[in-house]
């Protein structure tokens, strides 16, 4: 008798006839790869994929942009930043607008580029806009350590670094299962997903190739109908249970947990990172007395709801009309990791 043909991940997904399920992906790269590789198009109608707060630029609040603009225009510092942040609207203007008003804004590709810029320009006060999750925090820590070791006094960070575990906690009732971000877990290991499992929250760690994403979806769709919470690392070639101890030690040495404001989610206790007192010389907030700024987003922009999975970009009245990648109204349309830019680029959710 011929051996029964093994079902592939694609077979499992296509033939899914289980209950309706909401899967939240919490990584800007996943948002785009799931679209780009056509995975949304093959999901059955009862499988809903929603975007969570996984795009670092998108979750950075408006008040932070206002603080960066204040530093550029009122304190005359040179702002070094990733390109995406330059176009994110603040309360009254973006950093691009501040630059056109005489603010000095330099685009860099890493915190160490900003450090190099500061070292090459000792007559300028340089502030790097340090945003992002556990993946982008270690290079910021490295740049600060290097600056302190060199005795530099013209380099500092405006920190808005965030960590994922408390965000998962805040979002745990928003989905039936999480697609955990592979590169965050490559640094931090699998303990946050395992901790969520103990609370009855399901999820899998996913990689980024088509095969890895299909496997992650297939595992969810096999396990979900069984009715028991589950956790599985579907990215074992990169994610180890312990993560990267060296990167974790670096973060711990230079930064400490703090409360942090997330766009759309408000302040989540202990979900951010700030420089430890030993590195205060590189803390732009202390160095320049940066005031707290509340920030006002365009009231019609629904980025906050999108980041909580409460609506999809096409449900925003401005999507594709007033708000486009060329003329973004909110952060989710600016960043190449944002959900609005993904929907705009790849054509929207086919199930809507
Ligand atoms: S489409 Fe534009 S205005 Fe609407 S939520 Fe997205 S970024 Fe905000």
Note the main sheet.
6 strands, mixed
Q: What do the pLDDT scores average to? A: 93
Structural class: alpha/beta
Bound molecules: iron/sulfur cluster
Contiguous runs where pLDDT drops below 50 for at least 5 residues? none
Q: CATH topology of the domain at 61-297, which one?
A: Rossmann fold
Separation of the first and last Cα atoms = 45 Å
Beta strand count: 11
Q: What characteristic shape results from the CA principal axes?
A: globular
- In which order are the strands of the major sheet placed? 4-3-5-6-11-10
Instruction: Report the total helices.
Output: 18
For the record, the CATH class of the domain at 61-297 is: Alpha Beta
**Element string (H = helix, E = strand):** HEHHEHHEHHEHEHEHEHHEHEHEEHHHH
Keywords: Iron, Metal-binding
Organism: Megasphaera intestinihominis
Pfam families: HypD (PF01924)
Family: Belongs to the HypD family.
Description of the structure:
The protein has 352 residues and is α/β, with parallel strands linked by helices. It has a domain at 61-297: Rossmann fold (3-Layer(aba) Sandwich), CATH 3.40.50. Helix content is 39%, strand content 18%. The chain has a 6-stranded mixed sheet, with helices on both faces. The chain has a 5-stranded parallel sheet with strand order 2-1-7-8-9, sandwiched between helices. A hairpin with a 3-residue loop joins strand 10 and strand 11 (266-275). The chain is globular. Iron/sulfur cluster binds next to helix 16 and helix 17. Keywords: Iron, Metal-binding. Belongs to the HypD family.
